[in-house]
Amino acid sequence: MTSPGGGAGARLLARLAVLAAVGSLVVLALSVGDGGLEVVVAGLLGLVLGAAGLWWFLAHHGLVRLLGAFVAVAAPVGVLVLYAFDGLWRTALVLVLCWAASLACARAALRKARPERSRRAVTAPRPKRPFLIMNPKSGGGKVGRFRLVDRAEALGARVTVLDPDAPADVAALAREAAAGGADLLGVAGGDGTQALVAAVAAEYDLPFLVISAGTRNHFAMDLGLDRSDPARCLGALTDGEELRIDLGDVAGRPFVNTVSFGVYADVVQRPEYRDDKAGTALALMPDLLVGDGVQRVDARVDGTELSAQQALLISNNVYESSDEFGSGARRPSLDGGELGVLAIRVEGAAGAADLAVRGSGSSALTVLTARRVEVTSAAKEIPVAVDGEALRMTTPVVCTVRPGALRVLVPRDRPGVPAPAPRVDWRKVIDLAFGRP
Predict the structure, then answer these.
(1) Are 138 and 215 a contacting pair, CB within 8 Å?
(2) Three-class SS state of 411
(3) CB contact set of 271 (below 8 Å; sequence gap of 6+)
(4) Which region among 83-92, 180-189, 208-217, 333-342 has the lowest average model confidence (pLDDT)?
(5) With CB atoms 3.0 to 4.6 Å apart as the test, which of 240, 261, 322, 403 could cross-link to 312 if both were Cys?
(6) Taking the CB of residue 56, how many other CB atoms lie within 10 A of it?
(7) Phi, psi dihedrals of residue 137, rounded to the nearest 5°
(8) What pLDDT is stored for residue 429 in this prediction?
(9) Bridge-partner residues for 187, per DSSP?
(10) How far, in whole angstroms, is CA 285 from its chain's centroid?
(11) Residue 325, SS3?
């Protein structure tokens, strides 16, 4: 619940946001005769041309790709040059600063006004027979660099280190340990491996330990664990708390973060992707976006129909961010009992420009929540990326969520989950600034 002080602070920040927004409009009105309108028009034109150029660069080969790269770079540079040579840079700078201040205050106000939601953690007894699986290659060798095996064994854990040259069935290893009396299962590895062992822990109703030894550690981040020092995660073995969270399911396979269909899923199927992610994606994009053999996906999101989507991202609980494509996306809740759905369908340069200007308001982007998503395609089998792992599945592919299926053991001493920056809703900001407390 928001504290009275937090409510007053949120109202003040909301009023500052409105004041800064009005200030930008006043500056624009006063400078109309001195090029203020030119600043706005040129800025919007640069944004539209830059987005169109980026689309040409991604969706075409040869000369069109080169032209797109040139336009994507030249458009914003041209706007800056225009501002400088026409003496408009001061007006542009003031407008940008006013608008930036307005957005910053608005987001701070919405964040402060949002009721605090703490995850329900209960004190957990110390496990007597913990079993951990560690991947020595994960995260560039974090298992060895942080001496995770020695530290875990010193705390009484039984550790199995995977052999990089002999791929193992980690789910089978975990199931064997659970059947043999292990009272905790854990993984030091990537999110795909985490999901497989988490499913076994849920099956046996055992606590699950996440050790942030992967490359990106999205799951660990949303659990509030320390991603910079995976050894801190082992603190849960001696002083831990237990969280009940949801587990995603795609065609019977568990996932802890996301399932992707469409462009990204196609790209990660290629063997060369692991060694050259950017180069592989750029080489494949034209054929995946506008080529004759493009296979788009359809989806039924609860009762909503989506057709011919280029990319479809389904998440275990909802990501919140002021920018759906930015690195600031977080899941403030992992026990909400619902899937997040993000679908993209861009039809040409005009659609790319519309997405760049309107963001989440664009018809190219669909954001939904659901309990069940059914994905279909003209093909009988489609590529799927499950927590970053490349798979192929027979259509229709059904995604669901299992509420409260997983018991996660986390250390009592952990960084926690930072509140994500909320998307700015000006109606809420104005209500917060001038409405009833």
Answers:
(1) yes
(2) strand
(3) none
(4) 83-92
(5) 261
(6) 21
(7) -90, -20
(8) 92
(9) 133, 210
(10) 21
(11) coil
Q: What is the pTM of this model?
A: 0.82
Distance CA 174, CA 207 (A): 12
Structure token digits, residue 335: 């026990």
Rounded CA separation 25/28 (Å):
5
Q: How far apart are CA 377 and CA 251, in angstroms?
A: 15
User: pLDDT, tens digit, for every residue of 161-173?
Assistant: 999 888 889 999 9
Please, where are the H alpha helices in 87-190? 89-113, 142-145, 148-154, 170-179
- Mean pLDDT score of the chain: 88
What span, in angstroms and rounded, lies between the C-alpha atoms of 400 and 374? 9
Whole-angstrom distance, CA of residue 2 vs CA of residue 115: 5
Task: For residue 425, give Cα distances in angstroms to 98, 109, 346.
Answer: 17, 11, 24
Cβ density class 263-296: b for 16+ within 10 Å, e for less = bbbbbbeeeebeeeeeebbeebbbebbbeeeeeb
User: How does 99-129 read in b/e, with b if 16+ C-beta sit within 10 Å?
Assistant: bebbbbbbbbbbebbeeeeebebeebeebee
Structure token digits, residue 275? 């060694």
CB-CB contact of 236 with 207 (8 Å): no
What is the DSSP track for 160-194? EE--TTS---HHHHHHHHHHTT-SEEEEES-HHHH
β-partners of residue 382 are 393
Residues 11-15: contacts with CB under 8 Å, at least 24 apart: 11/109, 11/432, 11/433, 11/437, 12/109, 13/105, 13/106, 13/108, 13/109, 13/112, 14/105, 14/106, 14/109, 14/113, 14/429, 14/430, 14/432, 14/433, 15/433, 15/434
CA 203 – CA 201 distance, rounded (Å): 5
Structure confidence by residue, pLDDT tens digits, 285-339: 777 777 666 678 999 999 899 999 999 999 999 987 644 444 557 888 899 999 9
Q: Compute, in degrees rounded to 10, the torsion defined by CA atoms 111, 112, 117, 122.
A: 120
pLDDT band at 269 (very low <50, low <70, confident <90, very high): confident
Residue 198: closest CA among 211, 210, 188, 190: 210
pLDDT score at 1: 46
In terms of phi and psi (left: phi > 0; alpha: psi -120 to 50; beta: otherwise), the region of 192 is alpha
Amino acid letter, 379: A
Instruction: Report DSSP letters for 257-290, one per residue.
Output: SEEEEEHHHHHHTSGGGGT-HHHHHHHHHHHHHT
